Amino acid sequence: MKVLIVDDEYLELEQLSYLVKRKHPHWEVWTAEDASEAKRLAAAHRFRLALIDIHLPGQSGLDLAGELRQKQPNLSVIIITAYQDFAYAKRAIQLEVLDYLVKPLIESEFDQALSKFEQKHPEASASSPLIRSALDYVHRHYAHKISLAAVAAAVHTHPAYLSRLFVEEIGIHFKDYVNRYRIEKAKELLIKKPDWSMARIAEETGFSSQHHFSHLFRKYVGIPPTTYKETNG
Asked: Fewest Cβ atoms closer than 10 Å to its Cβ: which of 206, 207, 210, 232?
């Protein structure tokens, strides 16, 4: 998994890189000292998490976060700033950033922000090539019928072993992960495709029926998909 850290102070980049790698040594960390370098890296790599300082040379970190999110909708952003400013916090909320941290960083708060990211994206905890391959298969085939046996065959292992390793690394069962991933894709379509019916969104995201889709959406999100669409559209 790739992480982008953007800060114009070298020592801050070093500290943030250390804090990330200390907890997740298998994560791939890239750093940039300004917005232009960050955008160049984002054009060449697909990042899942970005840690961005608000005050950057040439462009606000908040504006940069908005641009990166437009090009990579699945990117989670943690904003870091030395200033407790309500206007900044309000803009960060509008951008739906994952967290908003104030310098000097408190390690426990930083770890909590990373934990929040892991809860939202449990696949980030995957460390073995086998599980990463299984996740890649799910991400490419989620719109179709997926079974543990089919994924195990695709990655050349036994279903029971894959199931056990999946829980050990990801923290949830395989079926639960597939449902969660499909729900996240459905949430994107509810916003991007407002003219689509619930039946079509259910079909496009791999659910067996609209009823099953609505039931699981309410289970994982807490509200019906129609309410989510009205609230976020």
From this structure: 232
| pLDDT (mean) for 149-173 | 94
By residue range, what is the domain housing residue 202? 128-232
Instruction: Say if residues 113 and 98 touch (Cβ distance below 8 Å).
Output: yes
Residues 221, 134 share a domain: yes
Structure tokens that stand for 167 in this block: 């829980």
Residues 77 and 60 in one domain: yes
Global pTM value:
0.67
CATH number at residue 217: 1.10.10.60
Measuring CA to CA, which residue among 83, 129, 123, 119 is closest to residue 98?
A: 119
Contact 61, 50 (CB under 8 A): no
Tokens 């039931």, residue located: 215
User: Tens of pLDDT along 90-143?
Assistant: 777 777 888 888 888 888 999 999 988 988 888 887 878 999 999 999 999 999
What residues contact residue 145 under an 8 Å CB cut-off, 6+ apart? 206
Amino acid type, 220: Y
Separation of alpha carbons 42 and 68, rounded Å: 7
Listed residues 87, 120, 153: the one ending a domain? 120
Is there a single domain that holds both residue 138 and residue 113? no
Supply the CATH number for residue 98's domain.
3.40.50.2300
Containing H/E element for 54?
Answer: none
The encoded tokens of residue 15 equal 């500290």
